[in-house]
What does this fold into?
Amino acid sequence: MNKGRLSQRVAKGGFWVFLLRAIQQLLNLGRLIILARILAPHDFGLMGIALLTMAILETFSQTGFQQALIQKKGDIETYLDSAWTVLVLRGIALFAILFFVAPYAAMFFKVSAAALIIRVIGLSILFQSFTNIGVIYFQKELEFNKQFVYQLSGVLTDFIVAVSAALILKSVWALVFGLVAGNFVRFIVSYLIHPYRPRLSRDLKKARGLFGFGKWVFGSSILIFLLTQGDDIFVGKLLGVTALGFYQMAYLISNIPATEISHVISKVTFPAYSKIQDDLPKLKKAYLKVLQFTAFLSFPIAGLTFILAPDFTKIFLGEKWMPMVPAMQVLCIFGVTRAINATTGPIFQGIGKPNISTVGSLVQLVIFIAIIYPLTYKWGILGTSIAVIIPNILFMLYVSKGLTKIMNYKLIILMRSLVVPIIGSTIMCTLIFFLKFKIWSQESLFSLLIFTLFGIAIYLTVIHIADKIFWQELISNSKQFFSGRKV
It folds into this structure.
């Protein structure tokens, strides 16, 4: 494929993915604020337990087929029916298991009301497993405009159903119905938007071939699940459902840099890296630009979230959510390191070496298990927040070392991409803190908006000055991403 054409498709794909995530987050934020006002932290904790149970089964039966199909060179159509058949059989088995284990999961967390919720959300697994596998082409061929329509249909449905149900029922079932309805609509749209029609196949040899790559994705998925969801399980079991509701809300808001920016970038870069995996110079150049762009966006967002967490919580969610603020502020650090770490997964998968991330995640998990109990026992959800940060930083150092070997980098080159955003974010937070506590201490929607705009202006000013003095790469690379020019 022509390199210029690929760059244009990556840029266009990035635009559509950014647009999708922006709309998603506006809807999710509106949904979150409305539901947080109507429902109690206990309701969010109940839903969290149900989602955890479902996620455990899904993760421990992960095939990695989608990533393998995207990474695979050449035509993949002959693999689709075999892969879809395995996914359908897996989905039916998971639904049955989830139905029968629901009472035991509820018993484990000592919340009997969770059993029925777990069984109902199991329908989502069926809808996901029967989804048209042809939509994999949207990512493989960088057709993210079609992916935009496909994903947004589910998000809009979830928003409408959840908010409507919350106003009527005022219970956790609003969250349940929104989730199930969103997945059902996405299942229907998958067949409307792509012409491929999967069929059940007895030829499972091709599926076994995909598992050669997928096994590393499977292993990595388990480790990532334990690292990102293990804290939820621990909090729910040790501290209770209400504490879990506080912790999950704090995690959700503070991890915006990781869940949004890195999600968008990895969606575009993984298939792009796969297409240029044999061109090392181009691969090296592309990764550095992705790292710079990720740092440019994630550090200031994490900084603003950290410094304005009390204001945001009190104004939008209400006083009942204030106990989560210290944990939310600590988790901002985790969010930004997670965003940086998320840039490495797509490149390791793209070049066919997902084992590097898997080994790093295993080391990270061992450290996490060793420290989570004493820290949570002593400081509650604040201690849990600290426990997820430490191994994540060590993981970042490990995968950075792996990158320097594969790409023939020096570590200083990678660190150089982070220095200016760190400095800019630190100065921004310091000045907002001074303005907030020394000059303008009132808490209102207007003051929150002023602090945010002031912080953004300070950050961009510092970045501009630093870029002019030291090197002229960060701003130019960011402009390329935003404008859609060749990268």
The radius of gyration is 22 Å. Residues 482-487 have pLDDT under 50 and may be disordered. The chain has two domains: 1-212, 239-487.
